[in-house]
Amino acid sequence: MSSPRVKILVVDDDRVSRTILCRILQKGGYQVIEAEHTEQALEQIVLDRGIDIVVSDILMPGDDGFELIRRIRDNPALYDVLVVLCSSLRDRDTVLKAREASVVGYIAKPFQEKYVLETVRSVVKNLPPPMDNRLEVTKRLGIDGKTYKVMVDEFLNALSQQIDELKVLEDPAGIDKSKESLNNLKVNAQALGAGRIEEAIKRLVACAERQDRDALKALVMKLEWEKERLASVHGPGTRETAPSEKGKAQTEAAADQAPEPPAPAAAAGSR
C-alpha cells in the first residue's frame, strides 16, 4: 500500500515570499499549490479536497491569516485541515494570538530552509494516514493479506453505495433510514484502521441530527473524498486481479500435462 504525497497550500500576497516558500517545500518532497489571498485560498481548499496543510502569511490585503483560519474552522468539512502561520511579526501578542487560533506551527520570515522543513515535518507527523499499516491490521484481526484486500474492497463498495444514497438525500431527517448501515460502516472502518473515514461518518451523523442541510452536503463530499483517498492507496481490488475458477482449472490441467524435467537439469537447479 503506497502513501499519498502530502499536499500543502501556500497563501501569501507577496510573490517573492510565496515563490521561495513553495520552492523550499517542493524540495522537501511535498506537493504544493499556491494562492495570493484568503478568498483564493478558500476556493482552492473547496475545489481541491486533498489539501492537508495550509501555510499562510498573516498580513495580507483584505482578510488576514487569522480570518482565513476562522473561515476554515467554520466549514464543517475542513475540520482536519492543519494551519501553519508565517510572518515577519515576532512580537509576543502575535505569537499568543496564533496559539489561541489553534495553529500547529509558526514560521518566521525571512525563510530559512532548514527551519521551514523542520516545522512542516513536525506537522506532517500529526496527519492521520488514510488507513493503518496493513501488517498491523492483519495481525490484529488474525487474517492474511488476501482476506484483508477482499475486506477492504467490500468496505469501499458498501461505502460507495451509501454515499450515492446520501447525495440524493433532500432532508437531513431522512438519514435515519441509513443509520444502521452508517453504523456498520463506522464499525468496519474502525476494524480496518480507516480512522479518517470513521471520523467523517461520526461528524456526518451528528450533523444530520442537528438538521444542518448545508453542513451535511459538505460532509458527504468529505466522506467521498476520504473514500477516494483510501481507494488510491489501497490499489486494485483482489477480486479484479484474482484468476477465475476456469483459469485456475486450465492452469492446473496444463501443469498436469507438462513433461517432467530432465534429471540433470533438476540436479543443476537444486544447486
Walk me through the structure.
Residues 237-271 have low confidence and may be disordered. Helix 4 links the parallel strand 4 and strand 5 (105-108). With 271 residues, the protein is an alpha/beta fold. Strands 2-1-3-4-5 form a 5-stranded parallel beta sheet, sandwiched between helices. The protein folds into 2 domains: 7-124, Response regulator (Rossmann fold, 3-Layer(aba) Sandwich); 134-241, Four Helix Bundle (Hemerythrin (Met), subunit A). The chain is globular and about 50 Å long. The chain contains 13 helices and 5 strands.
Q: Number of helix segments?
A: 13
Which CATH top level class of the largest domain fits? Alpha Beta
The CATH topology of the largest domain comes to Rossmann fold
Distance between the termini: 35 Å
Overall mean confidence score, pLDDT: 84
* pLDDT < 50 runs, ≥5 residues: 237-271
Computed Rg: 25 Å
Strand/helix succession: EHEHEHEHEHHHHHHHHH
Tell me the helix content. 55-70%
What is the CATH architecture assignment of the largest domain? Answer: 3-Layer(aba) Sandwich
Count of beta strands? 5
Name the structural class.
alpha/beta
The geometry reads as globular
Concise account of the structure shown:
It is built from 13 helices and 5 strands. It has 271 residues and is α/β, with parallel strands linked by helices.
